Amino acid sequence: MEETLTAPAAPAPSKEPARSGRTESEKALRKKRRVAITRPWTLLAPSLVVLAGLLLWPLIQVGKLSLQSYEVKFGGGVGTWTGFDNYRALLSQDEFWKYVVANTVFFAVACVVLTIVLGTLVALLLNRLGTVWRLICGSAIMAAWAMPAVTGTQVWVWIFAPEDGIAPKLAGSLGLIDPATTNWFTERLPFYAIATLNVVHHGFPFVAITVLAGLVTIPKELYEAGMIDGANAWQRFWKITVPAIRPVFMVVGILSTIWDFKVFTQIFMMPGADSQEEMLNIGTYSYLKAFAADDYGTGAASAVILTLILLIITLVYIRTLFKQGEEDL
Amino acid sequence: MNRSTRASRIGLPVAVIALLAFTLFPVYWMVSTGLDPRANSRGADLLPSGLTFEHFSYAFKEGNFDQYLWNSLLVGLGTILVSGLLALLAAVAVARFKFRFRTSMLVMVLIVQMVPMEALVIPLFLQMRDYGLLNSLLGLTIVYIGVSLPFGIWTLRGFVATVPKEVEEAAYVDGCGWGQMFWRVLLPLVAPGLVATSVFAFITAWNEFVFAYTFMKDGEKYTAAVGIFQFAGQNTTAWGPIMAASTLVTLPVLIFFIIIQRRLASGLAAGAVKG
């Protein structure tokens, strides 16, 4: 980086007397140093303004709002400071723990575990395929990944739609359920099972492709040595593959945790998500409190709780990146 | 040895078929329902009962979907124009200069990338309401610029770092100033990265739901992602048009992902790419 900045040095004018030449070059040097200090900040300034105005300032506002009782008035709102009342009310609420917290945590754990297991299995599979089949399977995985959350959710809802969907039709013809009376969107477990399927289907391609990128870096000799020692496939996976690409699993696991904690669209778009209390997760709870119940204070408080949880996980993630030294920060 | 090869001879094709079925079924079910003249009553029939474009034309005529797609396009283009330029400048700063707080800047970019939309939507809604920017494509574009910027800076920084410094130095030796070097040398070299980052920013805006749903209460201003949901709300059982509209939203994203799949495979572990 230093060389870049010293490179455009203006050569000292040779015709000038020696003395003034030195002051000239001193001046040029000073100017160059000033540029070296100010230029990165000039380049960063527009982005910093945007990030401060659209991400940092709103975060401060949501923190402020969570400590207020906010009333919507004509042509603007009025906030009254209430200290930690919103948090106290929220955390002492039975429904908040029984539904919101339980749904969010169990859903996130299920999604992360299933995403990583499936993603790893698919990566191992891709690693064994020839070029052509790897390309075909890779394209299919891309299709699952590319599906926007909005349209993907609509498709899963259609697949499981009461009476008409293919899943209840098939289950009905096998005699498992009575399609006319079964609605999977009104019970908590099937509701979240469908949401999990949706999120895992959308999330495992990232894991598969990242783990595959790690797998190809493991030297073949390690596996040959393992086979000579009589290790079976299961042992080779746990004793060779996992330790070799542990950092990849760390990153993939943390990122999936962050993403699966804040799932919103996939839940919110499901039928009954906004009218059934027991289906709420922390994202939909916060949103519906603020925009459907006009209780901005409580909505903001639960949004702050979610943000703090994600912040802690993010800090763990950044520490992992630093430790790995992969990111030349 | 023998046992494992036989197992893999049967196991591999089975696994490949299962994988293809699981990944592609939703896409297939979406497109085929969109084309099925009797979409709602197809039940468990794997093949559509016929092929028709009536659901697509219904989405355009009755559903106002051409307007929604146009809105999404405008918002997406506005987003990538501004956020692409800002991200490029910032990426050059963090990749090419050493300065105080540089690491803190990068950590901050990583952190703000993780902030959940649900936490931002409440304050930004109130802010935009005060500025009278609700129900406006401009207000939505401004929000998307902020949302897509951290990822843009993070990715472009990698692309800028791969341009050898010697190329820049050669430009200086040839008498270029910094500005000339930037436009004539650096910009063409990071152009592929800029395109990739911009497409991702475009997809972010194209797919985004929470802000568009909250800000746009006027039917004329819906983006395509919200347009589908409105559709579903009005008429819960009209799966043909819903799947046709979903196909229209999905296809551009799908095509792009398949084109870039090889590039994606390399160097993804560091970035955070997800819809």
UniProtKB/TrEMBL annotation, chain A:
Family stated for the protein in its record: Belongs to the binding-protein-dependent transport system permease family.
Domain of life: Bacteria
Native organism: Streptomyces smaragdinus
A Gene Ontology BP annotation from the UniProt entry: transmembrane transport
Ranges of biased composition (kind: Basic and acidic residues): 16-27
Topology within the bilayer: Multi-pass membrane protein
Bilayer-crossing regions: 41-60, 105-126, 133-159, 191-216, 237-259, 296-318
InterPro entries recorded: MetI-like, MetI-like_sf, UgpAE/MalFG_permease
UniProt keyword list: Cell membrane, Membrane, Transmembrane, Transmembrane helix, Transport
Name by which UniProt lists this protein: ABC transmembrane type-1 domain-containing protein
Domain ABC transmembrane type-1 positions: 101-317
PROSITE patterns found in the cross-reference section: ABC_TM1
Region (Disordered): 1-27
GO CC annotations on file: plasma membrane
Pfam family, one: BPD_transp_1
From TrEMBL, chain B:
Primary localization class, coarse: membrane
Keyword Electron transport belongs to the record: no
Keywords: Cell membrane, Membrane, Transmembrane, Transmembrane helix, Transport
Membrane topology: Multi-pass membrane protein
Transmembrane segments: 12-31, 68-94, 106-126, 132-156, 185-206, 238-260
Domain ABC transmembrane type-1: 69-260
GO CC field: plasma membrane
Cellular compartment(s): Cell membrane
GO aspect biological process, one term: transmembrane transport
Family indicated by similarity: Belongs to the binding-protein-dependent transport system permease family.
Protein name: Trehalose transport system permease protein SugB
Source species of the chain: Streptomyces smaragdinus
Gene: sugB_5
